[in-house]
Design a protein that fits this description.
The protein has 13 helices and eleven strands. By secondary structure, the protein is an alpha+beta fold. The strands form three sheets. Strands 3, 4, 5, 6, 7, 8 and 9 form a seven-stranded mixed sheet that branches. It has a two-stranded parallel ribbon with strand order 1-2. Helix 4 packs across helix 7, helix 11 runs antiparallel to helix 12 and helix 12 runs antiparallel to helix 13. The radius of gyration is 26 Å and the shape is elongated.
């Protein structure tokens, strides 16, 4: 693929991108003065002037995808005349928010293209591909039921042991991807807190000095679960008790309510003699909810796509860190209120941006903990950026299979090759 044919592809990033080898030759050709932006223009005219200087008239292949149809005006080309150098007669290519809009009002500027039929429009397969992708990685009803059943069974067991009732819901709640609605197929561990009575805390506080009270507490919880699940593997694993139900795992974090108003909890840390850590598990859900509200519901889909990349390419980044990166990226991305029609660009621009974050840090939700990113994952992000850039160009050209091939190198076979 000739890099010069991609000099109009928009790659949005902050900071410097350091690449080596063939990836450097290919990607550095994209980060030209025309499109490499340390900040994003705030209006379409500015973006057009950056993308289409005199020497790069849209007739030579310039591409711009509008943020929202309303920004483009009404009918008669949807305001194409308002963009410098992109009169329909000059061959300028626009990407409205929804392809179905192009069937109305005289083609909405289809005069600028070789054919006036909707089938010849660029990006014809993006919505179907990414809708299919999201459906393919969503948990099935049976998988959801299985996770809830395991959660309910363990909750009932611990309620019977500590409170003399068998409620499957009281004193426990899911955390992690199940609570945040960011699960993907195949389902990962079910993470949960079980809130112990305060008297259990005071009982363990009576242990002799030098005793690892947190480790002792985890061992007690393990014994109580093992009594009810004698054929399952139950073991302590750091701050949690891990119950393995023939490959389906539930991680139980014994907890004590610390502050009801701020919904904070003590959980065990068995390292260095043991201590309790204060956590705010609901704050992570709130952060994703708020981000989804700011970005037209795009945060959770992006997180799920990134988890699929994590699985497919064995990316050494924790899921929680990917969530924080997705939120941070979307807060700066120009098209963060676009719909599924923009998901090809969203993936490409995220990977380019992520490369620039190597050896940086993110701040944990609620805890305000500084999490250093390192760069062990950087080569995989660079490879994903290269492949996504190629896929985006193929999507623009409506080369369905070639685009699918590139996407599958990133996300595996859950993203459809043919749509």
């Amino acid at each position: 693929m000739d890099p010069t044919q991609h000099s109009r592809v928009i790659i949005i990033c902050s900071g410097n991108v350091s690449l080596t080898g063939d990836n450097a030759v290919y990607l550095n050709s994209l980060f030209t003065d025309e499109v490499a932006m340390s900040h994003k223009p705030t209006d379409q005219n500015t973006l057009a002037s950056m993308l289409y200087p005199t020497s790069t008239h849209p007739a030579s292949g310039g591409i711009v995808r509008p943020h929202m149809p309303t920004l483009l005006g009404q009918a008669e080309g949807y305001g194409l005349r308002s963009m410098a150098g992109t009169q329909p007669a000059a061959g300028g290519i626009m990407r409205p928010q929804m392809p179905t809009l192009l069937a109305q009002a005289g083609g909405f500027g289809l005069r600028s293209m070789a054919s006036s039929t909707v089938e010849t429009l660029p990006w014809a397969y993006v919505i179907r591909r990414f809708n299919g992708f999201q459906s393919a990685i969503a948990l099935t009803p049976n998988q959801c039921k299985d996770g809830r059943t395991k959660f309910g069974g363990l909750t009932a067991c611990l309620n019977a042991a500590y409170r003399n009732n068998n409620s499957q819901t009281d004193n426990a709640f899911m955390i992690g991807s199940w609570a945040k609605d960011t699960c993907i197929r195949p389902p990962r561990d079910v993470d949960m807190y079980y809130v112990l009575p305060n008297e259990v805390y005071y009982r363990f506080e009576q242990y002799a000095a030098g005793t690892n009270k947190q480790s002792a507490l985890l061992q007690e919880v393990k014994r109580k679960l093992s009594t009810s699940y004698p054929t399952s593997s139950i073991r302590g694993d750091g701050p949690i008790v891990l119950a393995d139900f023939h490959g389906a795992t539930v991680e139980v974090a014994p907890a004590f309510l610390f502050d009801a108003e701020e919904r904070s909890y003590y959980v065990c840390d068995t390292k260095n003699g043991g201590r309790y850590m204060t956590t705010k598990p609901f704050q992570e859900v709130v952060e994703i909810d708020n981000s989804d509200g700011r970005t037209n519901g795009n945060t959770r889909p992006l997180i799920r796509l990134l988890k699929c990349w994590q699985d497919s390419c064995n990316v050494p980044v924790k899921s929680y860190v990917l969530e924080l990166l997705a939120i941070k990226f979307l807060d700066t991305w120009k098209y963060n209120n676009g719909g599924v029609y923009y998901y090809d660009w969203m993936c490409r621009d995220f990977f380019a941006w992520m490369v620039s974050q190597a050896n940086g840090a993110v701040i944990g939700s609620g805890s305000l903990e500084i999490i250093w990113l390192g760069d062990d994952w950087k080569t995989r992000a660079v490879a994903a950026c290269v492949r996504a850039t190629k896929a985006c160009q193929f999507e623009h050209e409506n080369d369905m299979v070639a685009a699918g091939d590139e996407w599958q190198k990133i996300f595996g076979t859950y993203i459809p090759r043919n749509v």
